[in-house]
Design goal:
Number of domains: 2
CATH superfamily of the largest domain: 5'-nuclease
Bound molecules: zinc ion
Strand order of the largest sheet: 5-4-3-6-9-10-11
Distance between the termini: 149 Å
Number of strands: 11
Strand content: 5-15%
CATH architecture of the largest domain: 3-Layer(aba) Sandwich
Helix content: 55-70%
Shape: elongated
CATH class of the largest domain: Alpha Beta
């Protein structure tokens, strides 16, 4: 345990507050400020930053990151944030700190459903949840409402019946027809449902844009548009987005770098397996070709080699020729002898 002497002045100095103000903030999230667990100080720092709306301290240190994030997000008409990413570590604060200038420039807003606000409210008093989750669920709604007033977030009205997951799937199947939508969630099951939904519309290919009566009458050319993007990401450390994909081979979902593409992409294990199979097939094919070549060469050699029959005939011909020569020579000798006599 840390006594207030050990941390209060530091925190007060860091945030330019009077120690009494720091104490008030710490008590507002339910801690006895006289002594706190040593591992709580970082969370208290987050609590104070949230209360003071000091998000700039969570901004990425990489100057190129804003550009990268802009390239990821600029095509989306709607960006929904689920409940879990808001309270997992301080990742939401990092994300919001980095995304604010982009939202401002592109005139977009993050959307948080009313349902999510209710869930946060339920979490803050839930004794089954761990301390950090409860504290974050306590301080985030104030920050979210402030971000709403600043024009960075819109609270989406959902009505309060049904599960938020089902609602999101329904919502995405409706708005995903006409807009590019991004969902940030830590929930894998929900992610998979949305990816399959997006894949189905991707498979359909370009669709014709509906024409009015007059457009049809005046025979205006039909316009086709590409299917809209439906992308699911999760927040990771430092507020970085990782996109969720499903491998069409093994149907397993996985997280990887963000890309603007269909969400059904083979994972590296299946790609490696596929490549191995390809290599095996190729080797087998090559072996067959080699075998065939060897077989052809042997046949050619056999064809060139004189057969036994041919050899016997050859020998007989040779014998006959030799016999003939012997006879001729005999006759010649006889004639010579006759002349000599
Ligand atoms: Zn796979």
């Amino acid at each position: 345990m840390l006594h207030s002497d050990a941390y209060l002045d530091n925190l007060a100095g860091e945030f330019n507050l009077a120690p009494q103000e720091v104490l008030t903030i710490i008590r507002s999230v339910g801690f006895d400020a006289e002594k706190v667990p040593a591992d709580l100080v970082d969370l208290l720092r987050e609590v104070i930053a949230c209360k003071l709306h000091q998000l700039d301290r969570f901004k990425s240190a990489d100057p190129a990151y804003e550009q990268k994030l802009d390239e990821m997000l600029r095509d989306f008409d709607e960006i929904y944030i689920d409940t879990a990413p808001i309270i997992q570590m301080d990742w939401f604060l990092h994300f919001v700190a980095d995304v604010r200038p982009i939202l401002r420039r592109r005139k977009k807003k993050l959307i948080i459903l009313e349902k999510t606000m209710e869930e946060l409210h339920g979490l803050k008093d839930n004794p089954e949840k761990d301390r950090d989750v409860r504290v974050r669920a306590t301080i985030r709604p104030d920050l979210i409402r402030w971000l709403c007033r600043q024009g960075y977030i819109r609270i989406g009205d959902t009505g309060s019946d049904g599960i938020a997951d089902d609602h999101l799937v329904k919502l995405f199947s409706r708005i995903g027809q006409n807009e590019n939508v991004l969902l940030v969630t830590q929930d894998r099951g929900l992610s998979e449902r949305i990816i399959r939904l997006g894949h189905a519309s991707y498979e359909k290919g370009p669709q014709s844009v509906k024409q009015s009566f007059w457009e049809k009458l005046l025979r205006k050319p039909v316009v086709y548009q590409d299917p809209h993007e439906m992308v699911v990401c999760k927040l990771t450390e430092g507020g970085l987005l990782k996109r969720c994909y499903i491998c069409p081979d093994c149907q397993q979902s996985y997280y990887d770098e963000f890309s603007h593409a269909d969400g059904m992409i083979p994972d590296s294990a299946c790609i490696a397996k596929h490549q191995q199979n390809e290599a095996k097939l190729r080797a087998e094919e090559e072996r067959k070709v080699r075998l065939e070549q060897q077989r052809a060469a042997a046949a050619a050699r056999r064809a060139a080699r004189p057969s036994v029959e041919k050899r016997i005939r050859e020998r007989q011909r040779k014998l006959r020729r030799n016999g003939l020569l012997v006879v001729l020579f005999g006759i010649f000798l006889v004639l010579v002898l006759l002349f000599a006599l």
